[in-house]
Each structure stands twice: as C-alpha cells, then as structure tokens.
Write a structure and sequence with these properties.
Blueprint: H1 2-20, H2 34-64, H3 69-75, H4 77-97, H5 99-120, H6 127-154, H7 161-187, H8 196-222, H9 229-233, H10 243-247
C-alpha cells in the first residue's frame, strides 16, 4: 500500500507540474477532448486486464498444471497468435466501419474469455477448454490493438500526434503495472503456493478482476463518439498494432 500511495503522489505531482510548466511535456488540454480521454481510458483498462492476467496465467500452467516453462509458453500461443491474425483485419475493416465497434467488441471478448477461464479453472482443466477461452480473449485484444491506437491518433490535431502517441504509450504501461499489482494482490493469500487447489482459488478470484477491468474498458469505449468512416480513411497512417507489448 505504501508504494501504491507513493506512486499516486508522484502522479499527482506530475500533473501539478504540467499544469504550471510554460512548455509542458504532456499538455493536459489534450484530455479535454472526450475521444482522446476515452481512448486512453480504454488502453489503461485493457492493459490492466491483459498484463495482470498474463502475469498469473503462466504461473497457473506451471504451478497448478505442472507444465514446464516451455510447455506453458507454447500453451499461451492461441492468445497471442489470434491477436496477430485478427489485428490487420480489424485495422482494415475499421477504416470502413469506424473504431468504436471493434474496440467495444474486442474488450467484451477479452472480458468473456477471462471470465470463462475464471469460471472453469481447476488443476485438472483440459487444454481444449483453456485454449478455446484464450483464443476468444486473443481475438478480442486483436480487435482493440490497432483501433484504439488509431482512435488516439485521430482525436488530436496533426501537430500533436507525437505527444498523443507518447501519452497513450505511458498510460497503457501504467495500466499494465496497475493490473499486475491489483491482480497479484487479489491472488495473494496464505499458503497460495502450497497446493494446486490453493493456487487455483486465488487465480480464479484474480481473473474475475481482470475480466472486470476489460468490461470497464468496454463501457468507456461505448462513450467514444463514433467518427465517420470516411474521415478515418483520411487520417494519418494507421499505427502498427502493439503486439510486442502484449508479449512482454
């Protein structure tokens, strides 16, 4: 709790400094734009659910299901591979239909995949079920990666695209750290590593929180005002999907 309080205090000091700086590194006026603020909120909660779950999922495969690190990594592939396949398709379709549909659907799929795992997790859970749930979550994040990045870029004037991109990168990393801290705190309990059953109990509780983070992102996405598809087609080049971040 002390480190969380220190982090919140530092964030508050940063905001106070930026408000008074003659040439702020992050102009806080950007957050007066509803689309920019909503898109960054989506990134924060998506990465909170994603990184927090990734942190525990590999441990579940090893501690509760007794796979080796290599075997556990291989069993995570449906999650990342689905995102790699879906992201380019989502990026192209969003130029026609707009970003909000894909962001919302993607976060709901991620929430559904994590909730599915939380509901059925057990030391003897078969991989067919786990792999299917991971694929659902992977399709979800694949829908969000390119579209939320484009939403951020197209919500600000062209001269501020670099600042907007940097702010989004910082907030998604902050969301990932926040997610790991919160899910790990929910997971932790006396004797959690003493048996597969004890581990699974903490794991399930944490994954419900990860699913809730994803659902919160979906609610924020619904508030993003739909940008006309023809306007998005005229926007700057679509950023590359942030698939590398998901693998960290």
């Amino acid at each position: 709790m002390s480190t969380a309080a220190a982090g919140a205090a530092l964030a508050g000091l940063f905001v106070a400094w930026e408000q008074r700086a003659p040439a702020p590194m992050l102009p806080l006026a950007l957050f007066r734009t509803a689309r920019f603020t909503a898109a960054n909120g989506v990134s924060f909660f998506m990465y909170a659910g994603l990184f927090g779950t990734l942190f525990l999922m590999t441990q579940f495969l090893q501690s509760a299901q007794h796979y080796t690190p290599l075997q556990a990594g291989a069993r995570m592939l449906p999650w990342t591979a689905a995102a790699m396949v879906v992201s380019p398709i989502a990026g192209q379709l969003a130029d026609r239909y707009g970003n909000r549909r894909f962001i919302t659907a993607g976060l709901l799929l991620q929430a559904a995949g994590l909730a599915w795992i939380a509901a059925v997790a057990a030391p003897g859970l078969g991989y067919a079920v786990l792999g299917a749930a991971l694929t659902v979550a992977g399709v979800g994040i694949g829908l969000v990666f390119p579209t939320v990045a484009t939403e951020v870029m197209t919500s600000v004037p062209a001269p501020q695209i670099g600042v907007a991109s940097g702010a989004n990168s910082a907030l998604r990393e902050l969301g990932g750290v926040f997610g790991v801290a919160v899910l790990a705190s929910v997971f932790a309990r006396p004797g959690v590593y003493t048996s597969p059953a004890a581990f699974t109990g903490g794991f399930q509780a944490a994954l419900w929180v990860g699913a809730a983070f994803s659902a919160a992102g979906a609610l924020i996405a619904i508030s993003v005002r739909q940008r006309p598809a023809h306007a998005e087609a005229r926007s700057p080049a679509r950023p590359e999907p942030a698939t590398a971040d998901a693998a960290d």
